[in-house]
Amino acid sequence: MLNGKTALVTGSTSGIGLGIAEKLAAQGANIILNGFGDVEAPKASVASAGQAHGIKVGYHGADMSKPAEIEALFAYAQAEFGGVDILVNNAGIQHVSNVENFPVEKWDAIIAINLSSAFHTMRLAVPGMRAKNWGRIINLASAHGLVASAGKSAYVAAKHGLVGLTKSVALETATTGVTVNAICPGWVLTPLVQKQIDAKAANEGISLADAQKSLLGEKQPSLQFVTPGQLGDLAVFMCSPGADNVRGVAWNVDGGWVAQ
Ligand code: NAD
């Protein structure tokens, strides 16, 4: 279905980004990976997901908090892949602390990576998508883009901002073949959430299994983690012709979190 398209998935060396990259690869899209840490294992798993289609897999290590590096990433995408057809803004970090103790550098990093990076990638991606009259932009917001939790001021501000940014650019492109939407996951068991489970177990003197149960019990009525593959399936749908008029939505996949 996506043969001949190129998908750039930011922050795709791990977790949700990797799961989405694998699902898009399985539909035949070429994939540009990005993110820190080991690159060879994610590259191999994405190549194997797209093997039947003979897809091309690339990687660029841009730090998504740095606009000049994001520009270098787009220059790479243009030179090696002829541009970006599907942009998945997924790179993100978390820090948990009350506002009065929130480290200023953490606030700046969360706003830069979780929000401003999507402004930069969109301003660079939209002209090429408009020229082809086809494009898909999928922003990984969060249930925290729709409702708040204590201790997550920067993250909640960035994710609410990302939902607003999604709507605004969706309106700017509404008469074109470019769609812009957000996915708002609840808890997904990735390294980002594992850190919060570890901290909860340590702070409350409980086992990791109990910390996991209590984390789900507080917010997610299904009591089950959402999986990266489920989010990848939604991203694939958003790239399909059936979603040509899905524009500016913030689609929660959250086990019922924001229905409460
Ligand atoms: P993760 O920690 O597993 O993966 C984050 C990815 O981003 C990694 O590949 C990492 O290398 C990359 N990254 C971090 N900082 C970067 C930077 N400066 N430049 C480039 N890459 C960078 O996290 P995840 O849970 O898979 O989260 C992915 C996205 O989904 C984030 O935007 C997160 O806020 C969002 N999200 C996660 C959950 C959850 O429960 N895990 C829920 C809702 C939303």
Describe this structure in words.
It is a single chain. It contains 8 helices and 7 strands. It is of the alpha/beta class and about 260 residues long. β2, α2 (about 40-50) and β3 (about 55-60) form a beta-alpha-beta unit. The relative contact order is 0.14. Nicotinamide-adenine-dinucleotide binds near residues 12 and 92.
| Distinct small molecules bound, one entry per kind | nicotinamide-adenine-dinucleotide
Helix content: 40-55%
Structural class: alpha/beta
Residue windows where pLDDT falls under 50 for at least 5 positions: none
Number of domains: 2
The string of secondary-structure elements, in order, is: EHEHEHEHEHEHHHE
**Cα radius of gyration in angstroms:** 18 Å
Report the CATH architecture of the largest domain. 3-Layer(aba) Sandwich
Share of β-strand residues: 5-15%
What's the mean pLDDT score? 98
Number of strands: 7
Strand order, main sheet: write it out. Answer: 3-2-1-4-5-6-7
Shape: globular
> Regarding CATH, which class of the largest domain?
Alpha Beta
Contiguous helical run count: 8
**Biggest sheet details:** 7 strands, parallel
Q: Secondary-structure blueprint of this entry?
A:
Layout: E1 6-9, H1 15-26, E2 30-33, H2 40-49, E3 57-59, H3 67-81, E4 86-89, H4 104-132, E5 135-140, H5 153-172, E6 178-185, H6 191-204, H7 208-219, H8 228-238, E7 250-253
Parallel strand pairs: 1-2, 1-4, 2-3, 4-5, 5-6, 6-7
Helix pairs in contact: 1-2, 1-8, 3-4, 4-5, 6-7
Bound molecules: nicotinamide-adenine-dinucleotide (NAD).
Summarize the structure.
By secondary structure, the chain is of the alpha/beta class.
